[in-house]
Fold this protein.
Amino acid sequence: MNSSIAKIFTNRSTFLGLLVVVLGFGLSFLSPYFLSISNLLEMTQFGAVLALLGLGQTLVIIGGRGGIDLSVGAVLSFSGVLMALLYHAGVNIWPAAIIAIFIGGLLGCLNGFFVAVLNMPPLIVTLGTAYIFSSISLVITNGVPVSGFPAGFDFIGQGKIMGIPAQVLLIVIPVFMVMLWVINKTTFGRWIYMVGVGDTAARLAGIHVKKVRVMLYGISGLLAGLGAVVMSSWLMAAKPDIGTGYDMQSITVAVLGGTSMMGGEGSVSGTLLAVLIITMIYNGMQLANITSVWQLAVMGIVLLCSIIANNIFESRSRQTVKKSK
Amino acid sequence: MKKFGLLIAILLVMVIIGTQLMGCFAANEKLKIAFIPQLIGIPYFTAMEQGGKDAAKQFGVEFDYVGATTASAPEQVRIMDSLITQKYDAISVSVLDSVSINPIIEKAKKAGIAVFTSDSDSPNSERQAYVAQALDRDLGYTLLDTLAKQLKNQGKIGIVSGESTATNLNAWIGYMKERIKKYPKMSIVDVRFTTGGSSEDAFRQAQQLMVRYPDLKGLVAVASSTIPGVARAVESTNKIGKVKVIGYGSPNTVRPFVKKGIMEASILWNPRELGYLTVWAGMKLAKGESFSETNKVPGLAQEIKYFPDQKILLLGSPLVITKGNVDTFDF
Amino acid sequence: MTVSHDFNPGTKPFSMGYLLKRREFIVFLLLILEMAVFGILTTGFLRIDNLMTIFQNSVDLAVIAAGMTLIMIMGGIDISVGSLLGVIAIVVGWMIQADLGAVPIILAALSIGALGGTVNGLIVAYGKVPAIIATLGTSNILRALIFGMLGGVWITGLPPTVEFLNIRIFGWLPAVTLIIVIVYVIFWYFTKYIRLGRAIYAVGNNAEASYLSGINVGHVTVAAHAIIGALTGIAAISYIARMGSVEMSVGLMLPLQAIAATVIGGTSVTGGRGSVIGTLIGVLFINILQNGILLLGVPSMMEWAIVGFFIIISVSFDMLGTKKIIH
């Protein structure tokens, strides 16, 4: 096998980038509407919230020790509802949004506390808190969506700057940039990966493992809170069950993006590409009026095939490396 | 590698130009009408789809039924957005959440698309009409009155609904609560919600309600997906006849339970006709025609009333499905 | 309560310290406490027909959770069980409608289940896809299959081919609950005395070491997934017997409930530790909780908050307990 081609397939981000292009072609044959500039730009708004949650999920999973956050959807619902109730209690919308984001962070830290300090399994902790947070959001709103946000608030979710949805340009891209910087240029970024590889080694390297892990869950919560603001502005309503299903979707994009469930491995750019892929598939198939049942199945197939394919190329390239040695 | 990138870029540009041109040339003579249900996979909306298809054949228009696999408001927005991009002439939606759908309805209207609601409404939106099966108030009242007659105006009632956030279900429950004041010896003891309107969850909730209130006389299964579970719960606890089950279920869904005597009646309308009427209304709106106070729709027996102040097109009054007429329907 | 293997030869059986360390014992105490509280605070909870209803409703979850225990002991997870149950339930429904006898139906359910499980196992073992992702993928595909198979209508009003499962032995014991007894006895024996059962613990404890000791990790993984698949087939039959109908949201809550029950019962999410008896107690704990909170008159929307609260409490209790013993 040609070595440069092998490199394309083994580097997850390049592999995903290529997949984006291939899908772009494929989907443009399915529907003539797909490959128009306005559609390609508008399409991104449907991936914005998922991108935020997926980025948080990526960090939590990289952080290792079975790291996973099943509560992101519930935190999203809860923060959104809380922001709406605060607004109706007389708080100005923007402070209310900031409070909601912080409450999201706080709920994330609560998860982190259970996981890192009390040593409880992340899967089960976040499953439990997911049940609790989503139930509380239903109870405090009585199941009824809260609306009546002020007119200017819809800018985040519905505004456009040069045709690009504001939530992508003003929220997702900056968040992504900051995360890229944190991960590649700061000590904290290095700590995340070291913690993910193994607790003992990280502790020996002088890292406060528990603190790092609480922060990772806190960041996931913060991003879910931010997602809540975007979602509320997009729908101009806070729905108490809006986050349902986002937990699994965010895990899907993280893993599709190359994050290892074992921890210590993964990249935020991979996750973002994965969000793009999923958004493209949904959008393209929807434009071709292919029923959402098929969208469900294709998602499953893409998820499985891309990971298996990547694994195969990876093990092959490892073999060629061995041979050349 | 650079060459490879350049090649891709050139191809991309070509495809974009090509598709834009195609968009111009693809002039379609037929009107394109779409309906977005709350979710797919449930017999009620499947019946609406069939009715819509019948109408499409009758009137020579194109009809598409496009829905998500879960009842989710963002999914409805996403689907509607894709329909706008596809330049449909008329889009109808069975609204899940009467607030979050409004911005996209506005967007569709701006794009010059006739946009209206069917089956479930968003009264404060920019929708051009609401094709209603029957009025929410009539549905709530009729169900409670029918049940009251079965229970001889006394007894405790439990309600099993779908998701606690479903706007239309909550509206019907609200009217039931309003109506029950007319019957001083009747009371609603509890309203239970089920996750995803799951039949299994409904089964469990109904069983437990009967344990908690041993003197329970009636169970209302509000979401059609909860009917099999609630009816089964009554059957398996041997309370057929002692606890009356009623709900908003299609004849095909309730037939076995009506025949076994678990349900004496189900309140519904003909979703097939509703789908039919939806396509007819879409056609009229897309052509820019207006409705008169009473309309004759080819293919529908009854006259269709229109209330211009609320812009509601009314299919008729609720239908009470009983043992006597359940076999005459197939939807 | 002494069924689990945790490869901890230092503790003496039946000493107080040993019992307090046994997760099953703690959860069992919690279960008794829970039943006492509901018995005192509600009327009707302790009535025999209510208790039997709880058992009857626990069958699908209990059977699947037994398989989930195996998978989780191995360090895996399976979130496709709900969708797989749905697909099998539809096939079973069709076969009942076609008036095929109980035996072919049971065989079909078991084999479709085992087949589905094997596919999961192959993807996990040889495709090297993490179990949570592999089963999420197959779950999506199977859920799509459910929609396609039902074609927008539901299966209702089935003839009573499998109704014999609802017969009440002695007038109070639903026959279907015997499935729990049979499955759990087999599992107890399986994990304790059969080579494959012990191999699963070994793989969960240390995959590399068990590979070196001659266990074929891939085969064990596939076998465990095939087993949970076959169990899902059994659960599907009990589901049909209980519900008599199938709609498209069938089994949606099942995977997470099975995982919760398994973990409450003491199975470690990271593998290597767990017992099927603990899982059974976990299943009963959750179902009794859901039953009791309705009888207490807790509003519907609060239900899951309470379940979530107890999930966390029961796991944190365990964590604190083990910590004390270590110090």
Q: What stands out?
A: Chain B touches chain C through 42 residues (CB under 8 Å). The first helix of chain B runs from residue 2 to 25. Residues 221 and 227 of chain B are 5 Å apart (CA to CA). The two ends of chain B are 59 Å apart (CA to CA).
